[in-house]
Amino acid sequence: MLDITEKNRDWVFPVEERQFVPMGMTEPVQGWKTLVRTDGEKDEVLHVCRDTYTMLSHDDVVNSTYDAVKKANISKDFEFDVRCVNSGRQLEVEVLFNDLIIEPKKNDHIKYRIRAFNSLDGSFAYQTTADAMRLFCMNGCTTPDAISKVWARHTSQISTEGGSAKIVRGLENFHNQKDVYQEWAKHKIARDDAERFIKKCVVARSSKTSEEKHNQKQLETLMGQLDTEFKTLNKTKWALYNCLTHWATHTKETASPIRTTRHRENVIAKAMKTDMWETI
Questions:
Q1: d(CA 215, CA 30)
Q2: DSSP string across 90-132
Q3: Average pLDDT in the 9-17 region?
Q4: DSSP annotation string for 161-221
Q5: Tens digits of per-residue pLDDT, 230-240?
Q6: Are 125 and 151 in contact, with CB atoms under 8 Å apart?
Q7: Cβ atoms of residues 221 and 215 within 8 Å
Q8: Tens-place pLDDT, residues 124-183
Q9: pTM for the whole structure
């Protein structure tokens, strides 16, 4: 088990709330404030926000997640990783439980995982999720249909309490997912049907006409990954599922990987609630 006091605590830094005075003005704007990081050679503005915005420090998120994992007491063998990016504006915490594993298909192992997200620039709300990570891919493949999820805006009511109970409930759901995954591993699909699903539910673009439009670049990326998954998982719904989750998590080439992953996971979660997913 990892002691977070031994880690490089780059998520801990001073942030001050100050009045918002736009450039070229001398008086503050009523109802607005700035969050300013003050530990560098020059102060850095992280966020301009309404007075009603309540800052939740990254350190509170990290510590509450760590405490929740210990209190839940579901495993002593876990990896605790913290990523703080974009000058400290965005945070991701990942807890991977090495001894909590299901095997939907022989030699295809999935570990139970907890994640927490926070931002100081308003880019996304505080969120915790319990999901799974497929070990076939070193970068991990998440379950966008998260088996336990908490989402909260940065208001005066924001709280990190109750995390341990959510972790335990998420673990129960995690084990229940095994039957679903196994069913997908046996369910045969056609490549053309998978492409139609991706076009309509994953990479579709809004249009003011009756003509359906989609993101061709992302479609080609997804179909290329689907062919790769077919080679190892056969032409199954499980292969399509892992194609989608691979796309959601492989975002290092984007400007904001954490934000892109969260966006893609939400897209996939919605797609998996459609009739097309149920009938494919």
A1: 42
A2: EEEEEEEEEEEEEEEETTEEEEEEEEEEEESSSSS-EEEEEEE
A3: 95
A4: TTHHHHHHHHHHHHHHHHHHHHHHHH-B--HHHHHHHHHHHTSEE--SSSS-EE-HHHHHH
A5: 998 999 999 99
A6: yes
A7: no
A8: 888 888 888 877 664 455 555 555 555 556 665 555 566 778 788 888 888 888 898 899
A9: 0.77
Q: Strand pairing partners for 115?
A: 94, 129
Tell me how many degrees the CA angle 249-251-256 measures, rounded to the nearest 5: 120
Each residue of 101-122: pLDDT tens digit? 988 888 888 899 999 999 999 9
Two tokens, residue 214: 């989609």
**Cα end-to-end distance, the chain, whole Å:** 42
Give me the amino acid identity at 91: L
- Which is nearest to 122 in space by CA: 55, 221, 194? 55
Best CA proximity match to 110, nearest among 245, 252, 258, 250? 245
Which residue shows structure tokens 């063998």? Answer: 77
